[in-house]
Design brief:
- By secondary structure, the protein is mainly α.
- The chain has one domain.
- It is built from 9 helices and no strands.
- It has helices at residues 2-8, 11-17, 31-55, 63-86, 92-117, 121-141, 149-174, 186-217, 223-253.
């Protein structure tokens, strides 16, 4: 059963099986490789976030400049992330650049939320992120979560729907509707936030499966950077969704 899953569920593995230059066993990816690269990528993002929180103030006198830098960093992260996703091979420089740009964006975002919206919520969001990661990892290792083709298809379809709803919400907001589709406030916003976290957790399970399959198939060590990139993208998404959800819940409790 496992062999059938390996043959079709991971495009990286499919390319390697058709490539006569597949790596020797000594150059194969290991769990240590994945952990080291993931630590380096997340460490870069965290360091950039701490520095941007410290260096880029969010007081009224400099708010515009800080927001501009954060928006530029977010755009740069998007461009670099898309370029890396479309590239044939992982680039450590691009992946670390993506992490640094995301870190700048997250630092300003977190500082703004903590200062002007919900003091103390950042710590809760970080702890929530860690709890979701640990829960999904334990559930996956105990086989409570089984990543099948149906599971993968459902997650991708749901993520596509979430992205389309987000874009529609932005369009409605840009063209006159103050609250867009209502996804950024109230009960609907909370439901949307919970859906985002559930999807992020589902993507974590997909990444765990890809790492497990890659190690079993003996993919090249460089693919550990791809695993680190995927985990970082998903953890950033989870953090933003958790931060947004906690802020909405606090705002709802205030009324």
């Amino acid at each position: 059963m496992e062999q059938r899953s390996l043959k079709s569920s991971n495009p990286v593995l499919s390319r390697l099986r058709s490539d006569p230059t597949a790596p020797a066993a000594g150059d194969a990816m290991t769990m240590d490789d994945v952990l080291v690269r993931t630590a380096a990528t997340l460490g870069t993002a965290i360091l950039a976030a701490v520095l941007s929180w410290t260096v880029l103030p969010v007081d009224p006198a400099s708010l515009g400049a800080s927001y501009g830098i954060a928006a530029g960093a977010a755009l740069a992260a998007l461009v670099v992330g898309v370029a890396q996703s479309l590239a044939g091979r992982p680039s450590p420089a691009m992946i670390l650049t993506y992490a640094a740009c995301e870190g700048v964006f997250l630092g300003v975002l977190s500082n703004t939320v903590s200062t002007h919206l919900s003091p103390g919520v950042v710590v809760q969001a970080v702890l929530g992120n860690m709890a979701v990661f640990a829960a999904v990892l334990v559930a996956y290792r105990l086989r409570w979560i089984r990543v099948t083709h149906r599971f993968r298809g459902f997650v991708v379809a749901a993520a596509t729907g979430l992205v389309l709803l987000t874009l529609a919400n932005l369009l409605f907001s840009a063209f006159g509707a103050d609250d867009g589709l209502g996804l950024d406030s109230g009960g609907l916003g909370i439901v949307f936030g919970v859906a985002g976290i559930v999807l992020g957790a589902s993507f974590l399970a997909l990444h765990f499966k890809q790492v497990e399959d890659g190690i079993e198939a003996g993919v090249p060590r460089e693919q550990s950077w791809t695993a680190a990139f995927g985990l970082t993208v998903t953890l950033v998404w989870l953090y933003v969704e958790t931060l947004r959800l906690l802020t909405l819940v606090r705002d709802d409790d205030d009324y």
